[in-house]
Structure formats: C-alpha cells, structure tokens
Amino acid sequence: MKSHFLKVVGYGKPSLLIAVLTATLMIGGCAMIKTDSPALPQIDEHQIRLAEDIRLATEAWPQAQWWHRYGDAQLNALIERALKEAPIMAVAQQRLEASKAQTAYSVSTTGLLVGFSASLNRQDLSENGFLGPFAHTIPAQGLTGPWYTEGTMGFSAEYTFDLWGKDRAKVDAALGVQRAHQAETAEVALTLSSKVALTYYDMQSIYAALNLLEQARDLENNMVAAHLARAETGIEARTPTEMVRVHQLGLEQQISAAHSKITILKESLRALTGAGPDNFPEIKPVPLPSDSGALPPTLGYELLARRPDLQAARWYVQASLSQVDMAKAAFYPSFDIKAFFGLDSLHLADLLHRSSTQFNLIPGLSLPIFDGGRLNAALANSRHQSNTLIAQYNQAVVNAVQEVASNGIVLVDLDQQVQLQNARLIAISYKMESAKAHRERGLVDDIVVFESTLPVLEEQARLIELHNRQLTASINLSRALGGGFIQVDTNTSP
After folding, report:
1. What is the extent of the structural domain holding 138?
2. Residue 440: how many CB atoms within 10 A of its CB?
3. 140 lies in the same domain as 100
4. Please, are residues 217 and 248 in contact by the beta-carbon 8 Å criterion?
C-alpha cells in the first residue's frame, strides 16, 4: 500500500509565509500588558564610602589568603583543611554544580532540537471510525483489514524563534543564579576561614592567659609557704595565710575553667574543619601576632566587587530582572517550526519501500488572547520579587559599609588601648623591679617581691585580652572587606 504524505504550510507560496511572519510581528505590538511597576533604583555608588575621620595606620586590601599575614603554620593548615573537608563547603559546591547544570539545561532548550524515533502499532481498526473503510478485507483495493501493523521511523526536528527574547532571558536568569551561587560559595569559604581564625586565636589567648595563671599560682604557693612560716614562728597571725589561700583557690578555679574553654574551642575547631575524633592535630601554644588589620586607602565601588555576599545579591537582582523580561515576553506570540522526515506504512512489510517516505513541515503560531489575568499576575509577581531583591541588595550595601566602619573604629580604639596598657605595664613593673632590687640588698623578704609581681601578671593578662580583641576586630575587618574575593567575570558565557 502506498503511503506518501507531504504537508508544507506555505510550500510553493513564499508570500503566505511572509504574511504569517508579518502578522506575528504586528500582533506582537498589541500585547495586553495592563500594569507594570518600575524597577526600584539600585543604590548610588557614591554612597559606598567611609567617613573621612576613619583611618588606620596601615592601608591595604586583604589578600586572597589573608590569614597568611599572621605567619602561623598551624592556622594555615587548619583553614586549608576546613576549605577542603568541611561539610558546609561541600553543600555550597553542590549548589553551585546544580546551578551550572540548570544553566546548561536552559541553554540546551533554545537551539534546534533533532531526534530519531521508531514505533510499531498493532491495531484492529473500527468499522465506524475515521479509518472505517480499512477495517474490511478487499484485496483488489489493497485493504487487508481489520488488523494492521503500522510502522513509523524517522527524524524529527523542532525550532522555536526567540522573537521577543524570552529564551535569552531564561538563559540570563539561570546564568545569574549560577553566578550568585558562585559568589555564595566564596562567601561560605570566607565565613568559614574567619570562624576558624577567630576560634583559633581565642584558644591561643586562653593558652597565654593560662600560662600567666599558672605563674600566679606558683607565686601564691610560695606566698602561702612564706606566710605559714611566719605564723608558725609567731611573727604574724594565721589570717594572712588563709587570705592568700582564698586567692589561691580562686586561681585554681580560673585554671580549671581555662582548661575547659580550651577543650570546647578544640571541639569547635574539629567541627569547623570536618575532622573526626581521631585525626585532629594537637594545637600547640604560640605567641599572639601583633597584626592590627588594615583599611584600604579608599572605599567605594570596589567594595561591591570584593564582597562575595554583595556580588551574590547583585547577581540575584540581575536574574530577577531577566525573569521580569521572561514574564513580559509571555504576552507576545510565539512562532516555531516542526518537521518530520522518515517512513510510515500501515503494513510493516512495506515500511522500507520508497513509496512509504513521509515529510511533514508544520509552522506553528501561538498567541495568548484571554488568560483570566494569569500573565499580568505573573508579571506583577516577578516585578515585586525583583524589587524585593533590589531593596535587600541596597540594604546589604549599607550594612557592608557600616560593618567596615565599625570594625575600623574598633581597631583605632584598641590600638590606643594597647598603647595605654603597655604604659601601665611599664609603670607597674617598676614596683616589681624595685622590690627585687631591695630583696637582693636584704631590705625586704620574698613576700614583698611576690606581692609586687602579682599585679604585673594581672596587667599582662589584660594586655593579652586586648591583643585578642585586636585580632578579632582585624579578622572581622578582613571579612567585612571581602577577604581576597575577586569579582566574577560578568562577560563569562555559560
């Protein structure tokens, strides 16, 4: 049985196809967009600056591995391990890979789609159906019904013309989300490295304070022995001895609390780095670094490029604007062409014959006319979501500048406090050195030296606390300035 079907709209009549395209373009100008509020303005870059009176002694942007400036091999190893093994980094990386796959999928749906298909259809035709005559057996007319085994095989193709930029907007939206996730991955790394550094230096400051507490305990032990010797010889009452013991017990409490804090901080570092119970390195005490952080000579639009959280917010805004464009394009007609070339036959034995060749060319036009307000509602929803993201972005920029300013002010204040504390330490150390000199001359006993040494240890403990606060503000400032994040290339194609 011969089955040769050719369907071409406009085939042999180019003027008809041109007329269809012209009508499509004309109808496109009549899209029924009833309301569309304007996009909120994004924050003016001139507002992204610090007050003129906020300055530090050193001026620089943080480097990519900003923690290396502390010169601490233990800290470097902990942060590098955290960035490789922490579960939160794996979560961020998987989100990024998923968004890359989504972008690739969006791109793949915009081009020419070509496929191959083959099917068999064993059917018993109804005498009352559209193919009723074929349900009879009339060999002279080529009818062998009612059973037929239809075979179809061939290539199909489909292409949609992106006349209004809907597909391009879809790709741009997916690409914006991908770049936002890329920036968010950098933000997770920055936050993680900052937490590791803060926890590590909290531990080191407690190590340093613990060392002073143990020195003070040794002095208290000597003082108890000295007072006890005096009491036993009747030189003084037992009251001074017991008072020193009270202070000694207080030191023991502080030492016990310090050991507990070190254990807690160690567990925090273990969790941050993703280490197991048996493969976490020993954290050895090291001197606290003197770094006090730095502000760049100018702070302006560069902050937007260097803070990954602001970059993520910016790319979410760009993606939302593309989604608004998609919602607008939905009001306009769409035009596509579908084609099929292959073989089709009601008798499987005739499928591979030349007479079974089939070619379909089907241009298609789709135009929304009445949708119950669905498209306008979708546009309004996209616009409001976009404006929300813009408002959040503007607030994030304001918060970022305030965060930098606050940490800069704290560092300036702490620098002054450290200078004053050093002066206090020098002044109070004079009394201790004087007592030691008098003891060497036999003018005073050991108790006087012990009593003049304890205040020095207390002032040294205050200095350690100030140094730790300096490091905390310095690390927070590095984070506020975006660490070493580099702006993603806005011209990168998926």
Report:
1. 1-30+112-161+334-367
2. 10
3. no
4. yes
The pLDDT mean for the chain works out to 84
Which of 186, 179, 197, 156 lies closest to 68, judged by CA? 197
For residue 117, what are the β-bridge partners? 154
Single pTM value for the model: 0.81
Q: For residue 374, count CB atoms less than 10 angstroms from its CB and return exposed for 0-12, middle for 13-18, buried for 19 or more.
A: exposed
357-366 β-sheet, strand order:
5-8, 357-366, 334-345, 147-161, 113-124
Give DSSP secondary structure letters for 252-280.
HHHHHHHHHHHHHHHHHHHHHHT--TTSP
Residues 358 and 213 placed together within one structural domain of the fold: no
Q: Which residue has the tokens 């998609």?
A: 326
Q: Are residues 83 and 177 in the same domain?
A: yes
Phi, psi (deg, nearest 5) at residue 382: -65, -40
Using the 3D structure, point to which of 367, 392, 420 is the last residue of a domain. 367
Number of domains in the chain: 2
pLDDT in tens, 273-328: 988 877 888 999 999 998 666 777 767 777 888 889 999 999 999 999 999 999 99
Query: Which two three-digit tokens encode residue 400?
Result: 């970022």
Q: Please, what's the b/e burial string for 185-209 (b: 16 or more CB within 10 A of its CB; e: otherwise)?
A: bbbbbbebbbbbbbbbbbbbbbbbb
First to last CA, the chain: 51
Q: How many whole angstroms from its chain centre is CA 85?
A: 16
**Alpha-carbon gap, residue 80 to 265, rounded angstroms:** 18
Tell me the CATH number at 97.
1.20.1600.10
What is the pairing mode between strands 113-124 and 147-161? antiparallel
Give per-residue pLDDT as tens, 214-266: 999 988 888 888 777 777 777 777 787 778 888 888 889 999 999 999 999 99
* Together in a domain, 296 and 234: yes
- Report strand pairing: 357-366 vs 5-8: parallel
Cα angle 191, 192, 197 (rounded to 5 degrees) comes to: 100
Angle among Cα 75, 78, 83 to the nearest 5 degrees reads: 125
